[in-house]
Amino acid sequence: MRWGRTMVRLALCAALFAPISMASADPLPIRFTWIVVPGEIAPIMNATGATLHDGHSYVGQPVHFQASTPMITALATGEIDLALLGFSSLGIAVENAGLGDLEVVLDDIRDGVEGYYSVEYMALNDGPVKTVSDLKGRIVAVNAAGSVLDVPLRMMLRRNGLEAGKDVTVIEIAPPNMGAVLLDCKADLAPMVIPFSLDPNLRAKAHTVFVEREAMQGTTEFAFYVARKSFLDKNRAAVVDFIEDYLRALHWFYDPANRTATLKIVADFTKLPPERFANWVYTDSKDMYRDPAGAVDAKALQRNLDADFDTGFMKDRLDVVPHIDMSLVEEANHRLAKTP
């Protein structure tokens, strides 16, 4: 009888504590942002079958934005966890929005790396714009003020004696709609990112006035993931798992053995034909650069932030080193080396 009562007590204890254990094991929702696929791979990384942790230690929840600058408010209010910022929006977030605890944890894409694609600022062949100087009194499109497409434009304008908002009218357009706005003559110049810049109709009717590499005079840290330190301190293990999954998917996409499957994943997501991507997406030269280890180019990022200051989007120069934490990427790469 005594043994029986003991077993009942143990069973009751197990029942009482089981919900607590299960709740503590629930995967962490990680709300991450994206702008354009296939530029960003995070929204499609699970389609590779190479990820290990989504649904176990975390659940990825992609949130779409038109540009990186609107993500700053979402970061400040806790609506997102991992934000895909560019150099310009990082400066705005830290200095103007007071998010001094932001940390760069994972690189995504870079513009201007020698031998790789650079964003094209395009104008119509039969239009009035042949050089940057021709933009005086004209309309130019960007995705958002202060974005990684806007700051290079402002730098190129200034280099040619022009100022955005004074000599040139700036309108904000989502990247997928840039080509249509240009072809409809609603803007005289528009920055075109891939895959939209490769539209055959656009390329037949428009030409490149300059590329971002020229405007920034080198490499641009175009997109990277940041998080607030409080979120990282509390959820480091899950974020490392996310980064490991990202890197696994990145390597999968670049593996020639997966080429056919890669094109199908991208085509299914974008609703564009696979042939639109066949000769460039996730290649070593025709696409934008992605670091295989997910490491940020700190020197390039600092140079980009200095340019952000020069264009007037920042009041003071920002030292980026305290805002970079590559330890999570290093841990994820260490795991990959042990379990390829």
Notes on the protein architecture:
The chain has 340 residues and is α/β, with parallel strands linked by helices. The chain folds into two domains: 23-112 and 220-338, D-Maltodextrin-Binding Protein, domain 2, CATH 3.40.190.10; 120-216, 3-Layer(aba) Sandwich (D-Maltodextrin-Binding Protein, domain 2), CATH 3.40.190. Helix content is 38%, strand content 17%. It has eleven helices and ten strands. The strands form four sheets. It has a three-stranded antiparallel β-sheet. A three-stranded antiparallel β-sheet has the order 8-5-9. It has a two-stranded parallel ribbon with strand order 1-2. Helix 3 crosses helix 10 and helix 8 (229-254) packs across helix 11.
**CA radius of gyration:** 23 Å
Straight-line distance between termini: 55 Å
What is the H level of CATH, i.e. the homologous superfamily of the largest domain?
Periplasmic binding protein-like II
CATH architectural type of the largest domain? 3-Layer(aba) Sandwich
Using the coordinates above, name the CATH class of the largest domain: Alpha Beta
Strand order of the largest sheet: 3-10-4
Mean pLDDT across all amino acids: 91
Helix/strand/pairing category:
alpha/beta
What's the total helix number? 11
Strand % is 15-25%
Which descriptor suits the 3D outline? Answer: globular
The biggest sheet amounts to:
3 strands, antiparallel
